[in-house]
Specification:
Keywords: Membrane, Transmembrane, Transmembrane helix
Helix content: over 70%
Protein name: DUF2663 family protein
Structural class: mainly alpha
Number of domains: 1
InterPro entries: Uncharacterised_YpbF_TM
Shape: rod-shaped
Distance between the termini: 29 Å
Length: about 150
């Protein structure tokens, strides 16, 4: 499928700089969406591991509450120890992905706002304002990139 932005560039309706910025914002949006999916998956894994760990703690093996909750009993249970190590690993990955997502989101928003603020300059040589509206509509519809408002 030929992208409308590529078609506009080939037809000479947009400048090389505008084409570069629009492709860059599409790339950053794609990267942001990928990190969002990773973050969601890791969040789900953290919740599942927490549920399994809680089930392992309170599954009724201990007869008294103090036996069940003692740290020595928890660490003697190899399954619980493995779940705890897996939880710590996945949680660490989640924190890393969360920070990367925030960085990628800031980069994307910064570029998106720059394009919005410089829209008059970027589209100044285009005489057909309908093509600008169509390009923005295509970006909104196909990539969920809003270049109408900040």
């Amino acid at each position: 499928m030929v992208d409308y932005i590529d078609q506009m560039y080939r037809n000479g309706e947009i400048s090389e700089h505008t084409y570069y910025l629009l492709n860059k914002v599409k790339e950053r949006k794609r990267k942001k969406d990928n990190y969002k999916k990773i973050l969601y998956s890791l969040s789900l894994m953290v919740l599942i591991l927490c549920a399994v760990a809680l089930y392992t703690l309170f599954d009724g093996q201990g007869t008294q509450a103090e036996e069940t909750i003692s740290i020595a009993n928890m660490l003697q249970n190899t399954f619980f120890t493995r779940i705890l190590v897996a939880f710590l690993g996945v949680f660490t990955l989640w924190r890393f992905a969360s920070k990367k997502y925030e960085e990628v989101d800031k980069e994307y928003e910064k570029l998106r706002i720059e394009i919005i603020e410089r829209s008059q300059e970027l589209w100044s040589h285009t005489y057909d304002k309908d093509s600008v509206v169509q390009a923005y509509h295509t970006l909104k519809q196909d990539y969920d990139i809003n270049l109408y408002h900040k």
